[in-house]
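Field reference: sequence -> structure
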Amino acid sequence: MLTLILIGALLGLWIGGPLGLLIGGGIGYWIARRWRRSALGRLAGARAQFLESTFAVMGCLCKADGRVSEDELEASRRIWDQLRLDESQRARARADFNRGKAADFDLDAELARLRPIVGQQSALRQVFLQIQLAAIAADGRLDPAEHEMLVRVARGLGCNESEVAQIEALLRGATAGDTGPGGAPSAQALEDAYRVLGVDSRASDTEIKRAYRKLMSENHPDKLAAKGLPESMREMAEKRTREITHAYDLIKQARAEAA
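Structure field:
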């Protein structure tokens, strides 16, 4: 806002002298206020759409295997609790969930509405998909139909092959342990840790650290909030950063033990 005021004032001074300075500064302030209100309105709209799509897609995914289990319903309620939704917001979330599990729900159209919001922001896509995973993995199993549909959602949001591999890794991690005999990371957990960081197992320690730092920066809750993530989902974003750190720690542990 200050930048626009200064630009307006300087242009006014150049064109009209001291009086122009005042007029230009006032115009700059007016433009800045309108721009700020417009930007805040767009951000609020993006956050509302993100929430609506979150629960609509969740309903669709939970119904993918033919029925919504009680565990999945309970998981969706826990997510409402984590998001600290009030009664009116819960009612809307419930309505969106039911809309998503309806037989005539258009998943592709819903993803098309969400895609402009997540855009090229892979971190936003990952948080959205991780919330879905929390619901469909609640019963301790992943039906092949749920798995297939989650990958379809990932691709519908514009995820590339590396991001899809990350989702596959998170899918396995949701129902399996990290360690093998003796407490060492299992081969599958280690392979998935590399995929979560988006690096090859042959990458150097420096390359792995660079990938880790990049992901941590991209997934910072404040950055995601500025790009459309509802503030109520901050805890979900923080969970994502913990999983990135966990993957990095697994890799460091395995490499230290192999040295």
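Note: The CA atoms of residues 205 and 252 lie 8 Å apart.
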